[in-house]
Structure formats: structure tokens, C-alpha cells
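Aim 2, interim progress. The first record below pairs a target sequence with its C-alpha cells.
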Amino acid sequence: MERRAIYSSTRLICLIISIAFLVCLLPVEAKASPNVSAKAYALVEASTQRVLLSVNGEEKLPMASTTKIMTCILAIENGNFDAIVDVDDQAIGVDGSSIYLQKGETLSLRELVYGLMLASGNDAAVAIAIYIAGSVEKFADMMNEKAVEIGAKNTHFVTPNGLPNNDHYTTAIDLALISSYAMQNDTFQRIVSTPSMDFPADDDSPARYLRSKNKILYEYDGGNGIKTGYTDAAGKCLSAAAYKEDMQLIAVVLNDYNMFVDCKTLLDYGFENYDMLTVASAGEELGEVQVQNGIEKSVKTMLEKEITLPLSAEEYTMIEKKINLLGNVQAPVYAGMVLGRLELWLDGTLYGTADILAVTGIEENTYLYNLFTVIGDWLGFTEGR
């Protein structure tokens, strides 16, 4: 009986080990994409503009007041915040959300921009557009030129505020790229991370008490922007930003009745599944390049800068480094001279590049150089060289 019990126990242990082994061989299922109710959405890491997740991300849709992200960054880049703006008549009584500009009123550009982004003033957007470009139409041209520069190829602006127009649209990915670009600007980031701002009354302006409508600032750990939007045509729209663990994420939802909850879900997904990981280090040695007609036969090279990418743990092991060095270079070579480029690829997509530089200078092997070397040796100037 004892022998049979031992035999049965051994069989049970072997069965458990076998099952555990088979389980280990099963493929690890990737984390499911989050359940989001938006018609279109995108999750992007701002510094690299890498799209981490999207659904219908390239579908052209209206974006309501998230338009004002572009209006704001153009005001920052092309205006003086201390400048005093005479409110144009076209900015009086604009439909929708407003800071209630008055005829004959003067405000600083700073006040208008905070009114634009915190109170979502449609009238402030018109006043800014006319101040910066002279007209709403010319400002829209600036908006479209900037969109192309940023890489938002499926976006077209007609208004500075996002009021309905059939020719005014973006995509979730494009809006995330525009938001990512804007968040690289310290002034923009400071504005959109501000929960409230009060401006006292003066001779021709009433006091204004501005409060951000973006609940991400109040309800999400690390939330630091950006802009809400709503029209009947666009539905609820939100570009939400959060910074944690050295990573700036942008979550964009278009036509989403549950926009705040869904953006939090997307941001959670990004922070739980990705980290900013260093895949190449500044100063890292990357081989040698042959030097023609130099006093040395070759020169060592190094990477110009650190490259950090938002990656999952699995992706980190899959990064492919392509080192493209010149076959040879003609002397003289100077320290810091560009001798190649490092490329970082993942699944056939280029995600990062950096120049490869010469570590030291190499002088040309000329007659005069050799003559001076001989004289220096004879005089003892190059002893120990």
C-alpha cells in the first residue's frame, strides 16, 4: 500500500509539472486594446510622436474646440503676449462658448490666449486670428501651413475656433500630432496645465474668472492638458495629456460621449504597457572609419546623442540597429565630423536616428606636416609624442 501511494504521488507530481510546462509553451496573449466608445481615437507619445494605439485614427472628422490647440500655438509663436489687442468688431457676439468680449475693449494677447484655452472663448479665437494675421481667412492659411509642417496631412482648418464647417476637419492621429508638437512648447504647456486664471477689471474691461473645462487636470494623476471640444456636428472631443515616469502621453478622442473616462483609459493603457527606454547612448562607440592620406589610418566614431523610445518590454528586445558608416574619409578629419548615421527600426518602421561622429581629429599627411614633425623631433619639441 505504501509503495502504491508513493507511485500515485509521483504520477501526480509528474502530471502537474507536465501541465505547467505546456502552459509555459503557450503564446503570451497581448494585452487587449482598451474598450473606448469614441468614433475615432489615438494614443501618442509626444516627444517621438509615436502612435501607440489608434482606431479609425485616419478618418476625417470635425473636432470642435480642440481646433484651438492650433490657434494657441500660432499665437505663441507669432505674437507678443504683452501686446495690447484692440478687439475687432468681428469678435463681438460670436456663437458658442465665449469670454464676452465687448466693443471697444482692449486686452493683452496673454488674456485672450488664456480665455481661448481655459474658457474656450470662440470670440477670443477670432480676436487672436485677426490680430495675428489680419483676418480669419489669412489665419486659417497659417493654420493649414503649420499643419503640413507638423505632419498633419489629413487636416484642414477654416476657422480658429472649430465652429461647424464642412471643410474644417482633422483625424485623431493628426490632432494627437498637433497636440504633441504644441506640448514641446513650454509656454503652451504652462497655459494648458493651468486650472484657473483670474484677470481683474480695468478701464475698459470687466473682471474675468477663467476655469478650465478639462477634468483631466483635476482627476488624473500627472494630467497636464490639453483641450476639450463640443458641437452637435463633432460630438464631444478631447485631447488629453499626462506626464508620468518621464513619458508624455497624448490621448485624443473624437465624437465620444464618454470622453474623459475614455481618455483616462487610454492614458492608463499607455503608462501600463510602455516605458521610455534608452536604446542607444550618447558617446557609444560605433566602429572605425578608414582615413585616406591621414597621419592615422582610421578614426574612431561615437554616437552624437542618446535615443529614448516608448517601448513595451517585448519591443525593446526587437529593436534593430542599423549602423551606416562611410567606407572611408579623406583627411583632414575634425573631431565631431559626421561620419554616418544610426537608425533604429521596429517591425519595418524607422523610429529614431542619430548622427555618428568622429571622436578625434586626424591631420592630413602632407609634406609640410612631415617637415615640421622632423624639425620638432630634432629640436626636442615632440619628445614623447
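The second target in this work package is listed in the same format:
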Amino acid sequence: MAASLEQYSKHPLAGAITGEAQKQETKLLGVTELSEAPREGLRGAVERRTVRITGRKQAEELRAVLPAMSSGLECVVFVDEHYAATMRFHDAPRGDSLLFIQHLKPRHGVRKVMLISGDRESEVA
């Protein structure tokens, strides 16, 4: 159901969700009444059931009982206003990152490399 909704989303994680569904040969279902309001997440009807995909903060505002928080980015899924799943995502460092950073000093005179991110510290450490 989540992948069925996400196929219409512009969110950067939508591709990861639909890609995994495709990899697992999951059949995507019919979607109606789709909306994707800022800070509210994705909502729609999938096979006549209401499906909502949102973040943990918004899910907690709904007074949902959720599993313990973990590292990574989370999307929380509700079906018919009941908690259904938590999808967790983790970035993997690019394989060529070290080589790129190592070439910065000799080729471009870079003296210090810093990582600046809006992610949680656990994601970038």
C-alpha cells in the first residue's frame, strides 16, 4: 500500500520505496484521493482503505504508539488511522568519497574538510 501511494510522490525517498517494491515484485494497487501537504505527509485511498505516510513527529501528534526510535530517517505508515509500519532509511557513504577527499588538498589546496548536515549526528558521524 505504501509503495502504491509513493509512486505518485515527489519526495526523495519515494524512489527507494517503489524501487524496493519493484525488486520484490510487489503489485502496486489502485490509488485515489491522493494528497501530499507540506509537513503532513502523503495521504490517499488505496483499494478503498485510507493510507497515510508521515514522519514520527506528526505520528506522535496523532497519539500513535510507535516502536522505539532508531537511527536513520523514518516514515510511519497508517492504514485506516491505525499504525501499520515504520520504514527506516539509512544512507551509505559513496565508495569514491575517500579518494575524492584525498585529492582535494594536492589538487585544489584544501586545508580542512568539514561535513555539514541537517541530519542527526548519528547519521553523519
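The chain has a mean pLDDT of 87. This observation will shape the mutagenesis plan for the next reporting period.
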